[in-house]
Amino acid sequence: MKLRKSWISGDESLPVSTQCQLIDVNRTSHYGKPKQLSPNDDDLLLMRLIDEEYALHPFYGSRRMRQILLKKGYTVNRKRVQRLMRQLGLAGMAPGPNTSKSHPEHQVYPYLLRGVSVTKPNQVWSTDITYCRLPGGFMYLTAVIDWYSRKALAWRLSNSMESSFCVECLEEALRKYGVPEIFNSDQGAQFTSDVFIQALTKYPTLRISMDGRGRALDNIFVERLWRSVKHEDLYLKGYGTAVALKQGLAEYFCLYNTERPHQSLGYKTPDEVYKSATGGGASIVDKFSQKKSSDGSSEVTAQHQSAA
């Protein structure tokens, strides 16, 4: 609550009452707010560095991330890196422990997209969560994307990793664009929660798919969206408040969907491809090959590929 109050600014074009409503703060408590406690500046700096490195190299886990920080002159142990990556909702793409942990009592669904060719809009949607930094803290961003067209169908911001903002984002996408054939997510507790699953299972034709553990590449198209959002907007503009962040993201997602040419779409926009149902497509393929090991025996190797 103290962190959210620090985002309210009298210099914004929006009235303070509107700012309070956007970030769920009681207006009376804002005017009578006590002295703020300073956030942990060291953690915020490390989280910024981790976030920037992850956007460039999403396959880095906590071990490699620690080495990067050490080379930059920051003394940090792996447990701290793991804690900060958990706070950011980040998981390395390499096989291994998944920081996006599912709740032990929540049902986990199988991954349905390996080897599937996506040939039309609304065939496959997926979702994920990423971190957006602010000077005094951070917020979480979720989005729903159509695999065929790369169109961002809906998005939401939150100051916590609770399921509610993910459900709101999902329901907006369903309300505006109908029901997909397959909906894919990772195994995070937000997406395996009862309230999120119930929002999906009320549509009998919809099939639920979840990424394999340690396989963030299974949701590669949302990962690419996050990279674009951060390098083309967040890092360049450095938003100072939650209100400015929300307004800036609204402008960016409009640009992303309607104006920005996408190389993988033949330099068309996601809106054009979604509406025309031509020029898009996607697939996740596992290619297995055999090679001879040093002792002469056959060894199976796997290569993960994604079609742009």
Brief synopsis:
The protein is of the alpha/beta class.
Please give a structural write-up.
By secondary structure, this protein is α/β, with parallel strands linked by helices. A five-stranded mixed beta sheet has the order 4-3-2-5-6. A three-stranded antiparallel beta sheet has the order 1-7-8, with no helix packed on it. It has helices spanning 2-6, 16-22, 27-31, 41-56, 62-71, 78-88, 164-177, 189-192, 194-201, 220-237, 242-258, 270-276; strands at 117-118, 124-134, 137-146, 152-158, 182-185, 207-210, 282-292, 298-307. It folds into three domains: 2-31, no CATH class; 41-88; 117-276, Nucleotidyltransferase, domain 5, CATH 3.30.420.10. Helix 4 crosses helix 6 and helix 5 (62-71) crosses helix 6. The protein is built from twelve helices and eight strands.
Number of domains: 3
* Total number of strands: 8
Total of DSSP H or I helical runs spanning 4+ residues? 12
Terminus-to-terminus distance: 42 Å
By CATH's scheme, which homologous superfamily of the largest domain applies?
A: Ribonuclease H-like superfamily/Ribonuclease H
